[in-house]
Amino acid sequence: MTSVDTERTVRLTVNGVPRETTVPVRRLLSDALRHDLGLTGTHVGCEHGVCGACTVLVDGAPVRSCLVLAVQADGAAVTTVEGLARDDGRGGQVLHPVQEAFRECHALQCGFCTPGFLVTIAAGLEGRDPAAQITDEEVDDLVGGNLCRCTGYANIKEAVRHAAAAMGDAG
Amino acid sequence: MKPAPFRYADPRSVSEALEVLAAEEGATVLAGGQSLLPLLSMRLAAPTTLVDLNRVPGLDAVEVTGDGVRVGALVRHAGLLADRAAARVQPLLARATANVAHPAIRNRGTTVGSIAHADPSGEMTSVLALTGGSVAVAAPSGSGTVGWRDLFVGPLETSLPAAAVVTSAFFPALPPRSGTAFAEVARRKGDYAVCGAGVVVTLDEDRRVAAVRASYVSVGLVPEVHDLTEAVAGAPVEKADWAAAGALARTLVEPDGDLHASADYRRLLVGVLTERTLTEAAAEAAERTP
């Protein structure tokens, strides 16, 4: 008989590190990341899938972590905003090109929505042909699922174009 | 904004899922969860038990034949959107799926779950109706097929018993000499549609309009199919008066008003979107008619 539980132990790989936590089954993945695993880079805004602030990668694909239960992520590989930067091999870190572009283009003000944008855009740009010039429609598609109340999006879209170009040059 | 406590099971087969559903009163099936989890977090729903289908093997296939497209219960919107074979047999699938929310939602949400959820502002309920589709249902009493007309009872309500799993949805193929189109008006890109329209135009062998059908999103309590043929029947495809079909559609629908749009505004959009989509679908039907 299938077990019916109120609590489960969840094992998942977060930013390349195996993690384990025991949670009530109603725990949202967003809360498990923040409260149980201490990764507060993932921000929680609306908690019903509208704002996009909590977006993380589950097995490489952007999903709303507030719309996934932690138990459903058992066995999955999760990437949060903390996992975007790379080690530089000298004990420091190198920002992801999208993070670098956000800084260059002043694509954030209060920063609350930024983790969701960064993760979504990074996955979107990594999934496309880096040699192809990014179109305005692609840019709109990449940012359309995330709400930002500060910037008016102009600088965020500029950062997407900037990052796409940087990733094209690097590729 | 957190779900009320519930119990959780992730069975490894449909029959195990049915056992749990039958044993746990007040249990609900969880698939993509992109509609269900918001309802739980807002405490608009408080099932005793969630029966998660995500670890049941064999439910994630899109099967394409000349007759149509069968979409398994765990096929994500993004998967269906990217399926070129499915789009060739029934182009409405990709056209409508592209309008479902945002990419991050489409990566997780399932097409079949969206149908079983029976939200009149969902795109895929409307597409199931417009294509004359059906769902395959497994229940403790046995499995069977339920046609779209018998499936939808009201907003978020289907005719299915509580202990049932929709294992797939079937969308019949686009008939010959036909074209389709789908369009929405939403307040922001990816939002629920204020109004959406899907249409199918079929021509006869002389390239005259033989049949015109439309189904709308966020209009009415359950998906319906409206026959608009009489407004343009027999007209050569290049000369058909699609505005007249739009005007007819406005007289047939019964939209409700809400915070986002009045009933009159929705009726206006039905006319506009009908004319716009029919023009596009007619051009495609003409291309497909030698």
TrEMBL record, chain A:
Q: Which GO terms describe its molecular function?
A: 2 iron, 2 sulfur cluster binding; metal ion binding; oxidoreductase activity
UniProt keyword Amino-acid biosynthesis present:
no
Q: Provide the alphabetized UniProt keywords.
A: 2Fe-2S, Iron, Iron-sulfur, Metal-binding, Oxidoreductase
Q: One short Pfam family name for this protein?
A: Fer2
Q: Tell me the PROSITE patterns matching this sequence.
A: 2FE2S_FER_1 (PS00197), 2FE2S_FER_2 (PS51085)
Give the record's pathway: Alkaloid degradation; nicotine degradation
Q: Give the 2Fe-2S ferredoxin-type domain ranges.
A: 8-84
Membrane-spanning intervals of the chain: none
Coiled coil feature spans: none
The name under which this protein is listed is Carbon-monoxide dehydrogenase small subunit
Q: Which organism is it from?
A: Geodermatophilus africanus
From TrEMBL, chain B:
- Coiled-coil intervals: none
Provide the alphabetized UniProt keywords. FAD, Flavoprotein, Oxidoreductase
Chain ranges of the FAD-binding PCMH-type domain:
1-176
The source's domain of life comes to Bacteria
Name this polypeptide is given: Carbon-monoxide dehydrogenase medium subunit
Species: Geodermatophilus africanus
InterPro entries cross-referenced by the UniProt entry:
CO_DH_flav_C, CO_DH_flav_C_dom_sf, Diverse_Substr_Oxidored, FAD-bd_PCMH, FAD-bd_PCMH-like_sf, FAD-bd_PCMH_sub1, FAD-bd_PCMH_sub2, Mopterin_DH_FAD-bd
Q: Where are the transmembrane segments?
A: none
Signal peptide range in chain numbering: none
Which Pfam families does the record match to this protein?
CO_deh_flav_C, FAD_binding_5
